[in-house]
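Re: Re: ligand-bound prediction request (bumping)

Still looking for help on this. To restate: I need the protein modeled with ME8 bound, output as structure tokens. Inputs repeated here so nobody has to scroll up.
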Amino acid sequence: MESPFYVTTPIYYVNDEPHLGHAYTTILADVLARYARLRGQETFFLTGTDEHGQKVQQAAEERGISPQAHADATVVRFQNAWEHLHVAYDDFIRTTQPRHIHVVEAILEDMWHRGEIYLGEYEGWYCVPDERFWTEKDLVEGNCPDCGRPVERIVEHNYFFRMSRYQNWLIAYITEHPDFIQPEVRRNEVLGFLRQPLGDLCISRPASRLSWGIPLPFDPDYVTYVWFDALINYVTAAGYRSDPVRFERLWPHTLHLIGKDILTTHAVYWPTMLYAAGLPMPKTIFAHGWWVMRGAKMSKSRGNVVKPLDLAEVYGVDAFRYFLMRDMVLGRDADFDEARLLQRYQSDLADDLGNLLHRLVNMTGRYCEGRIPTPAEFGVEEVALSRRCQPLAAETLRRVEALAVNEALGGVMDVVREINGYLERTAPWKEAKAGRMERVATILYTAIEALRLTSVLLHPVLPERMAELWQRLGWRAPDPLRDGLAWGVIEPGTAVLSGPPLFPKDMEA
Ligand code: ME8
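Reply:
Sorry for the wait, this slipped through. Here it is.
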């Protein structure tokens, strides 16, 4: 039995409009989940929204509505965006849901009773828009080091989690589990951070200043710090305290996908919180790079935010997904360049893949009465192509498992190009002219079967376009889809369908 696969995205601030960065992490999680399902693993893919905190409270006040009403109105932007981008999550968690609030309360209560939380005094520089305290030395010219805006001096009583206790444990755990924080550059960054003394974590905010949060069960004058609340979403949705059997089965196989901007919260706060709560660790925390524009991080203040839905509108949703997956080496930053998207679209999708289908359907129409032909004897070329195809599924799934999605896609597209090369060399149109129809049948069958196999391996990235391709080939994809990963699956005799190009070239007009 394959182990289960549990993948999470960060839960996004409900106030934000979905942008390219959100879309990237979410599509990546979707692609990994779809490949895991293809492998036959029990798969659970979670995304959601982070709905408490100052920013939501402020935005609601500005609109003159309750924070909950504000969250209810804005969450749909994420839900609609994911639906539009063909994201098939299994669960969407909102931190304002009772199921989550119960778990946060239970964890706080338990940690309070076991002395993991104490009341102390907090003094520091607070950045209101970022909802974060900074120390004197963090400040850049007296301003918030993150957003550059002015900070306020605040002294107050607050509750603290004894995070400092777990510094040595965490260093040892990270060192002994090389898969825990990935990629290596991020693991080293965390270990570097842990060379400084680790303080305790302030986990409350006075309700007088911030009321939009989960009240501490042992002191209702305080609400839970938004990160302490938000991180817990991952265990809530996996069934912690509601379905212990499922939780035990899934949790040790968790992959948290995050952007590198939220590494410390996930790689330092979260593991120590889990450890203090007596819970096991997730398998991997993977921090991917940023999409940047000419070297600069996209941000609203810089005015260089890419709206994913606008791009998907122009190039088609699946092509947009393909570009994001093909062009980012996981872990590194990638420059977002629309010219590159266009180039990928035209060469990989329109020329290599779409055109191949078009040619095969046309030739099947012309030479084989529009039906998938029965092959005769395989020659050297056919044996070579089928040998190239047979290990492709295992190779692709292995690369995806190692989180090398761009390489996996590169490998499949190499085979698509080889099918084109095979057709050029075997030239079925010449064989037809010479009246060697058995040879035509063998060539078309082999090329169609090879294309069908590659299409199953591209389906996690191009779900809608590949379903369309199957229709054109008259192929009814089996359930489970993995049965379609074998060689020799397509049935001779099925009618093919001609239609408009899979990836039209005049879309930018
Ligand atoms: O941080 N390139 O939510 P958030 C790639 N609520 N990915 C990017 C990106 C970019 N330019 N910009 C953003 C939060 N992202 C918290 C998370 S989790 C318990 C709480 C992605 O709405 C990336 O995944 O600010 C990043 O981690 C996430 O958006 C931040 O989303």
